[in-house]
Please model this.
Amino acid sequence: MNKLIRVFAAVVIASLLLLFAINRLNSAVGFSSGNTLTIYNWGDYIDDDLIDRFEEETGMKVIYETFDSNEAMLTKIQQGGTTYDIAVPSEYMIAKMLEEDLLLPLDHSKLPNFKNIDERFIDLPFDPDNKYSVPYFWGTVGIVFNREMLGDMEITSWNDLWDPAFENEILLIDGAREIIGMGLNSLGYSLNDTNVDHLEEAKAKLDTLTPNIKAIVGDEIKMLIANEEAAIGLVWSGDAADMMWENENLDYVVPSEGSNLWFDNMVIPKTAKNIEGAHQFINFMLDAEVAAQNTEWVSYSTPNKEALQYMPEDMVEDERFYPSPELTEKLEVYENLGKKNLALYNDLFLQFKMHRK
Amino acid sequence: MENKLTRNLYMVPYALWIALFVIAPIILVLYYSFFDIEGNFSLINYQNFFTPVYLKMTLSSFWYAFLITLFSLLVAYPTAYLLTKTKHKQLWLLLIIVPSWINLLLKAYAFLGIFGTYGVTNNFLEAVGIGTQQILFTDFSFIFVSVYIFIPFMILPIFNALNELNPTLIDAANDLGASRWTTFRRVIFPLTLDGVKAGCQVVFIPALSLFMLTRLIAGNRVITLGTAIEQHFLVTQDWGMGSTIAVFLIIIMFLFMTITGTRKRGI
Model:
């Protein structure tokens, strides 16, 4: 017993010594809250070299943490234990964070590089006048498919999925807005439609797709499609890029009827301590060359118009990830429909899931 | 007098635990179930529950939970019986319990690989000439994996009941000329019935509200009440409806416990 207590005491003392040492080291280099910048971003979502460059240029120390879902990020920021200076939520989460008063307004006079952003991506309904957010990357919802497994069959639209030849070949992501949205789009309705008749119609149409659906799954869809468990998947373009990286037989298409357009955006949450540094970082990331380098590394679509000239041509001209202006016209951003309509979407989605072959 | 006081003192942690973590949550669930999505007091959730959607979901939850319990029992009883006959009982028992220490999610992911189109099972089926079958995302895979996960919990109480069985009773049955089947039916099974009931409770009740496996292994082809609760709390944020379903689950579980409950009979 005595021995146990001694071991325990040794561990405690060692930890305290280490803690003290770190504290001394930090203050020796001059790190204090004014000199550190805490960034909270998705995993694999920035070129690490750029962080080094930013540290060199500004003399700030960057602490970089990652999250894997908007909800997890929201919870952490609500708790407020860590002083995050920058976060990168998706657009629907921004609406929610604004409702809960978790964001600080941006000072646009400190963001001269904001002019580099394509006008198409400015002043969108989730944040009018970009008061609180600056777009970081964007993408679409579309269809990923395996050329090898489908042979010469082509997929260009949502309605192509109803082809009886695709029996038991389709995987869907488990998201009510995405799936009901597919039904709405295939009928030519808006993704933000709240007309009950239209929604019922979309659900009835989705029911007829059941024979072709193999499963409705979550994040595992990336692994399943890359492993050729099924030939077709309804996914976000970012996930599609990941899958295509894993399996070169895969291809991605934004359906011709239109689809969803999503954004991940840089914001300054209420937890921020280094607001000046946060602005510096956002402006740094908006720099055309920096954005180009970052985009090449992350391989999502950049909203930075000026960056495109510094990027390889085949990347910029890839219509799968930079759809033509005509198609972009048909893409819609999810609006915050309110709890009641969201509940309706979810009820219909639940009923659709229960519909058996 | 002092004895009574210390005894009451010892009761405090237990009473606090029950009040905070059993009674309070149930009251909260009941409380939330009376609010609609706008936060107004109403009975609309209960009205919604008695629509075909949720009734069908309840029935299907019941059906799958029943199948899972049945197959677990069919596998667990003979296993437990054989275990009591082995030489190193405790070692074998340990080997059966060890898999339940591994995270459920990890096991589910492993089955994605095992049952996949290019997985081990299909490679085997291909090799023996049956050809590739769809195993993943079917009722079969869902029930198989659920049974696999619940089996240790079914074996343990049955094993204990069998282990405590007085062997002289079996000798007596043999001496009196009972066949092995009659001995099992008239002596062994009735005396281990309490273990079977306990096992069924431990399996049936969680099986009713399984939700993660329905997505991972059944690809949302199986929808249980658990799926609906998860969706209402996390996606729709309709806590009222989620709570209402939970209230019905609690009622169903309570009924099940009462039916299978062990009544002490005088011997």
Notes: Residues 52-85 of chain B form the longest helix (34 residues). Chain B touches chain A through 31 residues (CB under 8 Å).
